[in-house]
Amino acid sequence: MSFEHRHLLGIEPLKPHEITAILDLADDYVALNRRPEKHSDVLAGLTQINMFFENSTRTQASFELAGKRLGADVMNMAMQASSIKKGETLIDTAMTLNAMHPDLLVVRHPHSGAVDLLAQKVNCAVLNAGDGKHEHPTQALLDALTIRRSKGRLHRLNIAICGDIAHSRVARSNLILLGKMENRIRLIGPPTLVPGQFAEFGAEIYDDMREGLKDVDVVMMLRLQKERMDGGFIPSEREYYHRYGLDADKLAQAKPDAIVMHPGPMNRGVEIDGTLADDINRSVIQEQVEMGVAVRMAAMDLLARNLRAERQAKAG
Amino acid sequence: MTTLFTNARLIDPEAGTETPGAVLVRNGRIAAVEKNAASPEQLLAAHGVKPEEAAIQDCGGKCLAPGIVDIGVKVCEPGERHKESYKSAGLAAAAGGVTTIVTRPDTAPAIDSPETLEFVTRRAQADTPVNVLPMAALTKGREGREMTEIGFLMDAGAVAFSDCDHVVANTKVFQRALTYARSCGALVIAHPQEPVLSKGAAATSGKFAALYGLPAVSPMAERMGLDRDIALLEMTGARYHADQITTARALPALERAKANGLDITAGTSIHHLTLNELDVAGYRSFFKVKPPLRSEDDRLAVVEAVRSGLIDIISSMHTPQDEESKRLPFEEAAAGAVALETLLPAALRLYHAELLDLPALFRAMSLNPAKRLGLEGGRLEAGAPADLVLFDADVPFVLDRFKLRSKSQNTPYDGQRMQGRVEATFVAGEPVYRRD
Fold this sequence. Notes:
The complex is a heterodimer. Chain A is 40% helix and 14% strand. Chain A is of the alpha/beta class. A 5-stranded parallel beta sheet of chain A has the order 7-6-5-8-9. In chain A, strands 2-1-3-4 form a 4-stranded parallel beta sheet, with helices on both faces. Helices cover 31% and strands 23% of the residues of chain B. In chain B, strands 1, 2, 3, 4, 5, 16, 17 and 18 form an 8-stranded mixed beta sheet that branches. Chain B has a 5-stranded parallel beta sheet with strand order 9-10-13-14-15. Chain B has a 3-stranded parallel beta sheet with strand order 6-7-8. In chain B, helix 5 crosses helix 8 and helix 8 packs parallel to helix 9.
């Protein structure tokens, strides 16, 4: 298998063929998940710990389900409620974890780079479930799988990423992944939320949404991350919705078969029209959730194979 | 006590020359500088010294320069002696060729009263082989609200006043402090930065910060801070030094202010001269400094400003941090790096890269800081204190942070190849460090 990483910390270190390898395996797991008996034993005997230093329902549930379907022993640790409140540092937490002998560690943390730091200190495979404003690799992979299954390919597509780019790790990971796979990417949003530096990544930047959506194949909406803002990025939600909220009228600029994506959770009536989000002909938001479980199964499967190979090499 | 330093490559920052020669030191001061290659016996005879009275220090053709005067060294007394004490800082300074450290008041508590300053001075005298000159805070607790007792603090020995990395955000408070400081003839050292824009920033805005998802500040915040301070200097006529100018955008304002005759000088840190924002790659918190590392374009512009003399002073901005403060996610990690021992080897990178010659380096590290503080040192001339550094400019080595003498070892140069190393350091003619 052509996937030689100990951890999945971001999309940035991955090569295009490695991205394809994850997606190909994920396709198999989509099939498995659609069967009445959806169970495999590839992670049997391994321990998966989900450590979330930041609130999450959907991602955590998706990782938990992915691990359980593959037969791992899964434990959830809600970290914001426990030791960090008592002053324990991230390194101490890592040491404590090492003593529990986990095999797969799924981590979300509010600070960029924190998952990298943790990965340096633990003896297991680490999956980044989102670090600050840096990366959220499994989200980008599930988005890629959704696009590939819906469009039949993952290259030479016009893809618009719209909204709060500045505060979004989803946008960064997607920008990197879709760039590596040779797509044309447009970033659409008010300049306060779409910093000009992103042009240096090869993206085209639009502050007029209608212009930006012209003839795109994929429209990725982002959630307005009100909790990450320290005030004053947009004048009001209603003005934001008027200028940057996705509705049928603005979507008419895109190709007739363009799909609409959103990483969830949605602010209906802020960044996306509720009816449009539910339109099964355009919106693939439900598929994204389904692909999420499959992609996470694939990623954990690949990392577990490498982990086992590494341990065997050590033992031999 | 008489010592003759022979067979030296003399680095004279005032003359801007690099010549073979000898230096005669008597009673702690330079008695004569001889740039002709006369024999030791002739030299001694010329100055009326009997050969048996003098110790001969053969420099072996290595560089002899005025000792470094380092403005802005943090010694963590009072408050955090486990990070750095006067004793450990003194050893590190001596090993780094730094003969005078000008200490920062950003301790816990801040050095903002004559009583605290006297405590620090006593500690320094007892434990430190190099000269120590203390700075005091400009405002009480470095909180930017009330000025300190500038007059009393000067009487107690404060050589300059600074709130360090705290910007006095209230312009009225700063204006009054500058006005009062001027009446005392005090030098105010400020950190030019727009405080609201730079709040919480861990990186310089740009492609790198965007990719790494780090809270970032525009380099423009430095120029905005400097512009404000320059306007206040026009109002008050105070003596002012900007601690660190690190961006190209701030340089034209500095140049205009100097041309307009304001009493302004500027410094920069060795880290901003030798590293750039990309060095942070992988969220390495030892590279987190304040202000954050800049782009390569900015770095080169600042190096050029040191060469031209627009930026007057290079400092180590020595900031010890323990492992616990650094082994955190980048945003949360403490800023600062130790640099007393790495200042000269790092500065020599600029020499080996042919960006600055040795006299220019020592103009910025020794002569200019001494001049700005009204000290006699920093010169290689008869009458000056015999504070000297003897170094090999070329010998290569790999830096091992655990061999540093500081109590904290947070250096960004760990494991890096360096070229040039201190052989010996002399304060008032006496050796305070010799490499084993």
